[in-house]
Specification:
Elements: E1 8-11, H1 15-27, E2 31-34, E3 39-42, H2 46-56, E4 62-65, H3 68-80, E5 95-99, H4 101-109, E6 116-118, E7 137-143, H5 149-156, E8 160-170, H6 180-185, E9 188-191, H7 194-203, H8 206-212, E10 217-220, H9 223-231, E11 238-239, H10 245-258
Parallel strand pairs: 1-2, 1-9, 4-5, 4-7, 5-6, 7-8, 9-10, 10-11
Antiparallel strand pairs: 3-8
Helix pairs in contact: 3-4, 7-9
């Protein structure tokens, strides 16, 4: 069945991460337009190199990844600093934790072991998986701009946490074929992170955003992204129950099945 037949859906995630999402939506009859609002730029800092040296000496008990991007970039840095004869990239005494199956999948593709997986794609799901953290040493490589919840919680549990910036995001040049008229004709604009929401908002004035979302639905991958959209005064009509592209697709299908002609839900906050 083509549950999304004829719906114009705008994807704001990075182009290299949108292919599978776009393919699935098209298979359901959707008309997909790409508007990448994030460009991933690695940061190879002295602090990162220092953390890798400490890791190789067995100075950490846990290595935590909160995104597939973090796993991929860290793996590249790690391999650059490993001697060619060393096959196992991490000390065998170290445990690893991934936020969500997609991050775990990225780790495995990079040859990194996965010991714990938080099934929920939120930082709140990680601490309960790690057991007693008193005096445990944790390495948390991640985006330069990220929520403080995880490191603060781990430290409150008496862990020693090193947070290392792996990459930062910026707004790439907008494709020339995308116009405000294109946005006006969209049925859904999807947001898969707070960064996609903030960067999208920077492309349009408040007046323009208000006009766009008078008849276009904003689809959020989860509550963290929804909270960011609300701060930006973007009304949210659709929110995924499972915080993945697949979950977001299911949420769009449910929405159009139950309220095919409904208007966006206006935020009062």
């Amino acid at each position: 069945m083509e549950e999304l037949k004829g719906k114009m859906i705008v994807l704001t995630r990075p182009k290299n991460q949108a292919a599978d999402f776009a393919k699935r939506l098209r298979s359901l009859g959707g008309k997909v337009t790409l508007l990448p609002t994030i460009q991933i730029l690695p940061l190879y800092s002295p602090r990162l190199k220092q953390a890798i040296r400490k890791l190789q000496k067995g100075s950490y008990d846990w290595l935590i990844f909160t995104s597939a991007n973090a796993a991929g970039i860290f793996s590249q840095c790690l391999k650059k600093n490993l001697p060619p004869s060393r096959r196992y990239p991490l000390p065998r005494s170290m445990k690893t934790c991934a936020i969500g199956p997609k991050t775990a999948e990225a780790m495995k593709k990079c040859g990194l072991p996965v010991h714990r997986i938080a099934e929920e794609y939120r930082a709140e799901a990680i601490p309960p998986l790690l057991g007693n953290l008193c005096r445990k040493r944790i390495l948390l490589p991640r985006a330069k701009i990220a929520r403080d919840y995880l490191p603060k919680t781990l430290r409150r549990l008496k862990a020693r946490v090193d947070v290392v910036s792996l990459y930062h995001t910026k707004l790439p040049p907008a494709p020339s074929h995308l116009t405000k008229h294109t946005m006006d004709r969209a049925d859904v604009i999807t947001f898969t992170s707070s960064s996609t929401a903030r960067n999208f908002a920077s492309l349009f004035s408040k007046k323009e955003r208000k006009k766009i979302f008078q008849k276009t639905r904003a689809a959020s991958i989860g509550p963290i992204t929804t909270a960011t959209l609300k701060k930006l005064k973007i009304p949210v009509s659709i929110e995924a129950k499972k915080y993945t592209a697949e979950g977001l697709t299911e949420a769009m299908i449910r929405h159009f099945k139950t309220s095919p002609r409904s208007c966006p839900i206006l935020n009062k906050s």
